[in-house]
Design goal:
Layout (H helix, E strand, L loop, with lengths): L7 E3 L2 E3 L6 E5 L6 E6 L3 H20 L2 H17 L1 H12 L3 H21 L6 E3 L6 E9 L3 E4 L7 H13 L3 E4 L6 H12 L7 E3 L4 H10 L5 E5 L2 H12 L4 E5 L4 E5 L5 H12 L10 E7 L3 H13 L20 H15 L3 E4 L14 E4 L16 E7 L2 H8 L7 E5 L3 H10 L4 E4 L18 E2 L4 H6 L2 E9 L1
Parallel strand pairs: 7-8, 7-10, 8-9, 10-11, 12-13, 12-17, 13-16, 15-16, 17-18
Antiparallel strand pairs: 1-2, 3-4, 5-6, 6-20, 11-19, 14-15
Helix pairs in contact: 2-4, 2-5, 2-6, 3-4, 4-5, 9-10
Amino acid sequence: MAYEKLELLIDGKWRAGSDGVSEPVFNPATGEVIADVPHASIADLDSAMAANARVNKEWAGMTPLARQKIIEGSARLLEERFDQIAENLTIEMGKPLAEAKIELQMGIDIARWYGEEGKRVYGRTVASRIPGMTQTVIKSPVGPVIAFVAWNFPCVNVVRKVYGALAAGCPITIKPSEETPGTAVAIGRALMDAGLPAGALNIVFGKPAQVSEHLIKSPVPRKLSFTGSVPIGMHLQKLAADNLIKCTMELGGHSPMMVFDDFDAEKAAEIAAGSKFRNAGQVCVSPTRILVQESVQDKFVDSFVKRVEAMNVTNGLDDGANMGPLVGERRLDVMDQFVNDATSNGAELRTGGNRLNKPGFFYAPTVLNNVPKSAMIMNEEPFGPVAPISTFKDVDEVISEANRLNFGLAAYAFTHNPAIIDKLRDNIESGMLAINSIVVSTPETPFGGIKHSGYGSEGGVEGLEAFLVTRFMSEIH
């Protein structure tokens, strides 16, 4: 299959950037260039904003049913093109094809959910204390949206923002990652082919700082949605403040996974290994601090290491692939740094800890045991296939460790003890908490963090609410 033709989408037209600037896109499993992604010039960005402004009233004025029909049409086209899009997602991102298909199906489900939920944007009537007066609360589209997303989930990161905005009645301009652009372009083609009005969706690429700062300074956007790192999220929030742009920030995480001694340690190890090394650990909700109660440490670690060493690390298109490469060569240096720092601080390297001798950007799935709190990996998000394991004595100690950092995106715990579950529910500082599973994201539930992991939600009614504003009207008859 041919890789997606990469173009900008501006005001309903697919085209190259007006300045002729582009950059290469690499297949991380081979290191080979697979395409060139065009950059939008300043004039192109201004055209996108003008298109959003022009179509704003038209798209907001359409009935939710009319918008839903376009969204549903695009979902069906994504299904028709499923195999090609999934394969291209693997080629540009590196994750195993089975994972790419799961992500694409999740994206289609999110699109459909938003389209249907857009029909249920309800206001309310409030009883008045003044005779003859009606009081009405109205929910309206916030207006044009700008969005910037990370590379690790080329489909879901884009779909959450694009379809949330469109379902709420907002036009949107999105800058996907230049490292994984093809999936976003395929999503845009499906929407345009389904009848989306010109200008309701623009897709642009370019130097991230230049694109984001120019779009945020425009008077057109009324909403910013960002998925990415904490420092960049903070920077964008400051820029958005100058125009009082409403923000949703889905930022980094450092998710604790707490394994208590009343839970089957081998079963916990099986779940932990599958979730930790999904997408080579390049997942914002990946368990990145595995905290095991002392009495089951050896059993858990031995089982965990056995499963990790059995993983087939290879090109994501290969049959039986369990883990693919990292997205780029730069991430290999970061993994080396985390491992070297941990072992120099006394951690035990149980398996991995090295680059794989093959083309592409492969790093061995790595397990570090007895990692001290002082190690860099226990304090900074690793975003890669390195699993640090530490121990705890009791529930109070592990809650203290889980809450020690400024991150607060996701947390996981394995226990059947109702008293411990209640204590975790009341005290763990994270936007999402999974007990005896790793499920923290479905189309109909809110996805988002607290503390430095950001604010606002994607998914669920909360995700739709993020693209709405509340207005109030009183009337005396």
